[in-house]
Specification:
binds zinc ion, extended, about 10% helix
């Protein structure tokens, strides 16, 4: 049998205040409800013996910079439907 009670607990959660585009350095817009405009977020953990041996890189790219990036690709992104 469990006898239950209650206690007041203070919770601290981590929130993201700002996001900056790694390419242009501009702040990614956040609306009045606290939602950021869409952006590309990349997290890459490089393998052992790669050029970045076991490093983890986090990169955020705004929509304007992403547009420039894809316009400069020799092979364009696949715009297929995600299943
Ligand atoms: Zn940018």
């Amino acid at each position: 049998m469990k006898v239950r009670g209650s206690r007041k607990v203070e919770i601290q959660e981590k929130i993201i205040h700002d996001i900056f585009c790694n390419v242009c350095g501009k702040k990614i817009h956040k609306n009045k409800d606290g939602y950021f405009d869409d952006f590309l977020s990349i997290e890459k953990r490089w393998g052992y013996h790669s050029e970045f041996d076991n490093e983890t890189h986090f990169i955020d790219i705004c929509q304007a910079c992403y547009k420039v990036l894809i316009n400069n690709l020799k092979i364009k992104p696949d715009y297929g439907i995600v299943e």
